[in-house]
Write a structure and sequence with these properties.
The complex is a heterodimer of chains A (39) and B (232).
Chain A (H helix, E strand, L loop, with lengths): L9 H28 L2
Chain B lengths: L8 H24 L13 H27 L4 H32 L7 H20 L5 H16 L1 H11 L15 H37 L4 H7 L1
Helix pairs in contact in B: 1-7, 2-3, 2-5, 2-7, 3-4, 3-7, 4-5, 4-6
Classes of the chains: A mainly alpha (39), B mainly alpha (232).
Chain lengths: 39, 232
């Protein structure tokens, strides 16, 4: 942070987007696997 | 309740549409929208955090509606929908807390603070996760549907508290924005991601409800004849 402004921060942005994508993709895959098993 | 054993295509279409919206919205949010004046690039987390928040509360609201219908109609398909909406709502609430923590560190200097918005959201997450966990301990589908609906209605009280917490109490978390207070450059990626998470959430809830319906149908099915013969 410099003079009240936040500088940089891309690592946090990628962490938020990456973690969101990973969790949503994992859950989506788990749903398809559970659906196939439940037939 | 008769489960449909064909592969559900409509949820798959919703999930595909959701992914397309999210990819486009995230591209615009990450590479096209300008950085915010004070928060710089860190503000780009908003394009995924706010849609997650909206849809987490929406999933809980659907669970609340399913709980009310489940109590008045003795149709276990509403219990399957309730289970699905709670699970997806818990997933989104968990993601919401993670994204919030990642945004809080560079802006507030801490990963977590016992601020009213954060605390009420954590209560929401654990209350609904608790309902999901306790459902596993009840074998009778009818009893499980009844008490799950009652517990969901009680837990839902926290949803308006989460929403209004930033207005009712002094909070580090900023108040809700409106289209009038959001720059038009931020508006499009935010809306695209909001619809992306909405479509994805709807598809997930439909698939999860189908899984729950099939399990409940198995639970309600009479025992196999050979087992009945052994017991006799």
């Amino acid at each position: 942070m410099s003079g009240g402004y936040i500088t940089g921060g891309w690592a946090f942005v990628w962490a938020a987007y990456g973690w969101t994508a990973l969790v949503l993709a994992s859950y989506g895959i788990s749903l398809f696997v559970r659906l196939r098993k439940s037939r | 309740m008769v489960p449909n054993h064909r592969f559900p295509r409509f949820p798959l279409a919703l999930i595909t549409l959701g992914v397309l919206c999210l990819l486009t919205g995230s591209y615009l949010g990450l590479f096209v929208a300008p950085p915010e004046h004070y928060m710089g690039n860190v503000q780009r987390i908003m394009y995924v955090h706010v849609p997650t928040a909206w849809n987490a509360l929406l999933a809980m609201t659907f669970a609340f509606a399913a709980a009310i219908v489940s109590l008045f109609k003795s149709d276990l398909k509403w219990d399957a929908r309730l289970e699905a909406a709670i699970e997806v709502g818990v997933l989104l609430a968990f993601l919401l807390c993670c994204q919030g923590a990642i945004w809080a560190k560079p802006t507030w200097g801490v990963w977590w603070d016992w601020d009213p918005r954060l605390t009420t959201t954590a209560v929401l997450l654990f209350a609904f996760a608790g309902i999901l966990a306790l459902r596993r301990f009840v074998d009778d589908p009818v009893k499980r549907a009844t008490w799950s609906a009652v517990a969901t209605i009680i837990a839902y009280v926290d949803v308006p508290i989460v929403y209004y917490s930033v207005r009712w109490w002094n909070s580090l978390h900023q108040q809700q924005s409106s289209p009038a207070t959001v720059s038009s450059q931020f508006y499009l990626p935010l809306r695209l991601n909001a619809f992306g998470v909405l479509f994805l959430m709807s598809g997930f809830i439909m698939l999860r409800a189908e899984i729950a319906s099939r399990r409940i149908a198995t639970e309600l099915a009479p025992p196999p004849r050979d087992l009945v013969g052994e017991l006799a």
